[in-house]
Design goal:
Elements (H helix, E strand, L loop, with lengths): L2 H4 L1 H19 L2 E10 L9 E5 L6 E6 L5 E6 L2 E8 L6 E8 L4 E10 L17 E3 L4 E4 L11 H6 L4 E3 L5 E3 L2 E2 L1 E4 L2 E2 L4 H10 L5 E7 L14 E6 L6 E11 L4 E11 L2 E24 L6 E25 L4 E25 L5 E27 L4 E4 L9 H4 L28 E4 L4 E23 L12 E23 L4 E23 L9 E24 L2 E17 L7 E19 L2 E12 L3 H4 L10 E3 L8 E13 L3 E22 L5 E25 L2 E15 L9 E15 L4 E10 L2 E3 L2 E3 L2 E12 L4 E8 L7 E7 L2 E9 L3 E10 L9 H4 L6 E2 L1
Parallel strand pairs: 1-7, 13-16, 32-35
Antiparallel strand pairs: 1-4, 2-3, 2-5, 5-6, 8-9, 8-46, 9-15, 10-11, 11-12, 13-14, 15-16, 17-18, 17-45, 18-19, 19-20, 19-44, 20-21, 21-22, 22-25, 23-24, 25-26, 26-27, 27-28, 28-29, 29-30, 30-31, 31-33, 33-34, 34-35, 35-36, 36-37, 37-38, 38-41, 39-40, 40-43, 41-42, 42-45, 43-44
Length: 863
């Protein structure tokens, strides 16, 4: 398929967008200067500088000063008012800053004086950018998303132009599963547990989302599709402060929660929790044709399922400033999720003429209860001369090394309550702290434990061919599963400056992870039988030890910033299965280089080139060769011989900023060796077996185009179109699974601020049908609309959000190979309306619209 031939409309739109944006960008001027401390004249890093139109509170453009106190802003010609600020200092203002097209305006030194934060706060209401382009990531604030009030984490992720989120909560970046981080660390759950967590975690808790397509060597190498870092809100202020929220939906889902923070002297405490009840009903249909029988036979499955669940989270973090240079932290967090599900599936077996040969149903009752607990502690020591200062809500200290330098991962908190418990990067901030010169050592230890208990009861009932009850006895199957996980981790990071505009970082990480599963299955000839006719005891044990060393070097050279790094990892795994003579042992030693180059071309133009190598290691559930399904016609088994997949990725991102907004083009190339794919095979008895296999390689290349419009009379938005081509080489399995496929998607988002306190938002996304190794997945279409009203001096907010208002979401699939052809579809009504309320108390909070701007990493460009 040729992109130019199949999608001429898209190419025309891209050409028009480039033609529209480039001339405007070329007319921009540049404003430069240095922010210094008065009266010493010392340059100040991490100060926020913004330009506003006279008489307007909306920030037109802005930047953050580098280690030398310098800033550089591209902006359309005109006259502006400049404002420079940094926590712990007075705010400097300069009116009448005139910018000419294509010219540079040097403002010289801008002085700010030290100030005590115990004085009454100065409230500055500004309109910061919702999307920020940093040296190694794109940052999206949730402050103006109606879906962030009353919605779930998946609703926020769907609002990010670069991400694709399926109805089950799976997140993809550039067509590959993304690694989910919370406050800069990997989420403490994976697979289906992680998807369920994202569907039930309140969006009210999320401050911003950071998309890192090519992570540096500083991050763990796990994950083939880049990193999506979810940064949670922090509510730390002097004295006592907090917030409460509650929401309810037309589908009977309700939730409530709150946060509390207390700060006094050297001690900071913050914590909170939430409780949520969910309800979801699904219908499904599958028709499978067995090609191994002569003549062929068919199996039709019609299913219905209703699942109700209750989930909750509690967390508490304590920070104590031992000395001016040393901060210690301790944290405890727990998350619990339980659900009950009832379902019925009707099985209809037919011959080639579609005459019924057998008819029965299976009624199931399922229960699950998962509990996770995370304990962590950390120490940070700053070697540079320090100036004591208190940090307000969400701020992590004045130096870029503390507040989120390029490549920094965020704070150590991993559980949903991690919040401000970090020392650097995306999760940094909170509490009384220090700022220094970027020369520091941090050490973190963590212990995590989790237990997942599940139970199911399945009753098979034989039916007459006309659908009536049969006199044959019913068959009962009981299945009980107990899975436990433990993980201990040590991490040390050391960073020091390399000249005035560079840094060197070294780190070590060690981890031990253990998983054990015990499963008991009993089959009774009828429900009244006391002794089972069959009983099996299965399970597995899994242990992984992991050691890693990394180093990165970062440097800024005028308009160019560069970062290179290397990570070395050693992993040893062992899988044991009862009844098998020997375990499955594997050892891996791998090197993961990374590079990131960013060049500010001036005139609103920016280029970023990134390279990385990453790995995905199979989880224990994908390795366990024992059938986990209670349905004898649909088996699911793991593959103990499954190898890790290694992905090499290269991307080039270019952006143009003009008078009306930004145009960003992001082509990329990715190659994965030993890629995983799910394979379904059907035997002559009509039994399907699903397992995982390695493909020899998969090559993907594509691009995305995003156009973002600045707020004009209160209206802003973005449109994103992405397309890619995937070439699969499955010569190691069968040429039937090789091939290539073209896929594309489109999404849009528009926001309108009708008044200072009333805002509207609408969004939608469309993904056409696409080919997969064994078949084809249908297209999907989803829309959201919301309205938000704030009152009580912005302390309270009421939000109404409607999901899929026209009830258009559908999902279907088709799989085929020499053994079978299967067509399936599921019907899940996503349509609902959610009404939510939130309230903040304590000291008057800063306007949330300033947060994203104030927390920009060094040399970021506001879009």
């Amino acid at each position: 398929m040729r992109f130019s031939k199949s999608h001429p409309g898209i190419l025309a739109a891209l050409a028009a967008a480039v033609a529209f944006s480039a001339p405007a960008a070329a007319q921009n001027g540049t404003v430069t200067g240095t922010v210094v401390e008065s009266p010493s004249g010392r340059p100040l890093a991490a100060a926020t500088v913004t330009l506003r139109a006279p008489g307007d509170t909306a920030a037109v453009a802005g930047a953050t000063t580098d280690a030398a106190g310098r800033f550089r802003i591209q902006v359309a010609p005109g006259t502006y008012a400049l404002q420079a600020s940094r926590l712990g200092y007075t705010t400097a203002r300069r009116a009448g800053v005139t910018v000419a097209g294509g010219a540079a305006t040097e403002l010289g030194s801008i002085e700010v004086a030290a100030a005590t934060l115990l004085l009454e706060e100065v409230q500055v209401v500004t309109e910061a950018a919702t999307a920020i382009v940093a040296a190694d990531r794109n940052i999206y604030s949730t402050r103006d998303m109606p879906v962030a009030a009353g919605g779930m984490a998946t609703d926020v992720l769907r609002s990010v132009p670069e991400l694709e989120v399926d109805i089950n909560g799976g997140v993809q970046l550039r067509g590959t599963a993304a690694q989910i981080y919370l406050n800069g660390r990997p989420a403490p759950m994976q697979g289906q547990s992680l998807e369920l967590f994202l569907q039930q975690f309140p969006a009210d808790r999320i401050d911003r989302v950071e998309v890192i397509a090519n992570p540096s060597a500083r991050f763990e190498a796990e994950g083939a599709g880049g990193i999506v870092n979810i940064v949670l809100k922090k509510n730390v202020d002097l004295g006592l402060s907090g917030s409460l929220f509650a929401n309810g939906s037309t589908r009977g889902e309700v939730g409530t929660g709150g946060r509390l923070a207390y700060q006094r002297g050297r001690l900071t405490l913050f914590g909170g929790g939430f409780l949520r009840r969910s309800d979801r009903s699904t219908t499904s249909y599958d028709l499978r044709q067995n090609l191994l029988t002569q003549p062929v036979t068919l199996l039709q499955q019609d299913g219905w399922n209703d699942r109700e669940g209750v989930s909750g989270n509690l967390d508490l973090t304590s920070e104590f400033q031992l000395t001016e240079r040393t901060l210690v932290r301790a944290e405890v967090a727990t998350w619990r999720n339980g659900w009950d599900a009832d379902g019925v599936t009707l099985y209809t077996e037919m011959d080639s003429a579609r005459s019924i040969t057998d008819l029965y149903d299976r009624a199931s009752v399922n229960r699950s209860d998962r509990l996770s607990t995370d304990l962590s502690a950390g120490l940070r020591h700053n070697f540079a001369p320090l100036r004591r200062e208190r940090r307000r809500e969400g701020e992590g200290g004045g130096d870029p090394a503390v507040r989120g330098r390029p490549g920094g991962p965020g704070g150590p908190g991993r559980m949903p309550g991690g919040g401000p418990g970090g020392f650097r990067g995306g999760g940094g901030g909170g509490g009384g702290g220090v700022s220094g010169g970027g020369h520091e050592l941090s050490v973190d230890v963590e212990y995590e434990t989790g237990n997942d208990d599940s139970w199911s009861r399945v009753l098979r009932r034989q039916l007459e061919l006309d659908g009536g009850p049969s006199a044959l006895p019913e068959q009962l199957t009981l299945d009980e599963n107990d899975e436990g996980e433990r993980e201990a981790q040590l991490r040390a990071d050391y960073v020091r400056p390399w000249g005035p505009r560079g840094s060197v970082e070294l780190g070590y990480q060690a981890r031990v992870q253990e998983t054990e599963e015990d499963r008991v299955r009993e089959v009774f000839a009828n429900p009244g039988q006391a002794v089972p006719v069959a009983s099996t005891l299965t399970g597995f044990g899994y242990r992984e030890t992991f050691h890693s060393l990394y180093g990165t070097v970062s440097r800024m050279m005028g308009p160019v910033s560069a970062q290179v790094g290397l990570r070395a990892e050693r992993a040893d795994t062992r899988l044991t299965v009862p009844g098998m003579d020997q375990g499955f042992d594997k050892s891996y030693f791998s090197l993961f280089p990374s590079a990131n180059l960013r060049w500010d071309l001036g005139g609103g133009r920016d280029v970023r080139l990134a390279y990385s190598r990453r790995v995905r290691r199979p989880r224990p559930g994908l390795l366990n060769p024992v059938d986990r399904s209670t349905d004898p016609l649909n088996r699911t088994v793991g593959n103990p011989d499954l190898d890790p997949q290694y992905t090499t990725s290269l991307s080039l991102e270019t952006s143009w900023t003009g008078t009306f907004g930004t145009l960003r083009l992001s082509p990329y190339y990715r190659r994965t060796s030993d890629d995983w794919t799910q394979i379904k095979r059907v035997d002559e008895h009509g039994v399907s077996t699903v397992t995982w296999e390695n493909l020899a390689s998969v090559r993907s290349y594509g691009s995305s185009l995003t156009a973002s419009m600045r707020a004009i009379h209160g209206v802003s938005g973005n449109v994103s179109v992405s397309g890619s081509r995937e070439v699969r080489n499955a010569s190691n399995l069968s040429t039937e699974y090789s091939g290539d496929a073209m896929r594309w998607s489109a999404r849009g988002n528009v926001s309108a601020r009708l008044t200072r306190r009333l805002a509207l938002q609408a969004m939608g996304y469309y993904t056409p049908a696409r080919d997969v190794p064994q078949g084809r997945i249908s297209s999907t279409f989803m829309t959201h609309a919301g309205v938000r009203q704030s009152f009580l001096k912005d302390r309270a907010t009421v939000n109404l959000m409607v999901t899929d208002p026209f009830d258009l979401y559908r999902s279907s699939f088709e799989t085929r190979d020499p053994t079978h052809v299967q067509i399936g579809r599921s019907r899940f009504s996503a349509r609902q309306a959610v009404l939510s309320f939130s309230y903040s108390f304590g000291r008057p909070p800063r306007d949330r619209r300033t947060t994203a701007e104030e927390e920009q990493p060094e040399e970021q460009v506001i879009r």
